[in-house]
Amino acid sequence: MKYKATVMNSDDMNKALKRLSHEIIEDGAENACIIGIRTRGVPLAKRIAVNLMSIEGIALPKGILDITLNRDDLLMMDHVPEVKNTEVDFDVTGMKVILCDDVLYTGRTIRAAIDAIMELGRPKCIRLLTLIDRGHRELPIRADFVGKNLPTSKNEKVIVNLIETDGKDSVEIFSKE
Hints:
Number of strands: 8
Order of helices and strands: EHEHEEHEEEHE
Radius of gyration: 16 Å
């Protein structure tokens, strides 16, 4: 892969996450929970939760979702994926679930996440928060809260780096060619 550009730095990311936190407050955070999709959705959900606490004193239940067994490409993989734990220690039934992920692309990850959440209970609603929406949907899925819309070509790859997982905060575009 060939590096093309950095489209968000640490300051840009922090501003976007603060704005997203305010949007959640405006949408209504009562009877809500926040669940991050492994891997990078988890630290994003935690950061949003910290923002909600510092802005409005709102403490949302937090969870971690592993979608590995809900993927639609399990049989096509040439390796056995590592299944990690889903850590949701509360009942999602009747709650507004704020589902967090780093990049929204085809929509297949989110479809798998919705299936995984429905296995936990019947939420009142599910709202999707994504740091980057790069387009190219294959399923009728859209984000309710978007940090940055980033039109890309299919021969590009969007990499979200987070301090918690990668040692730095940035969003970079690479060419697959």
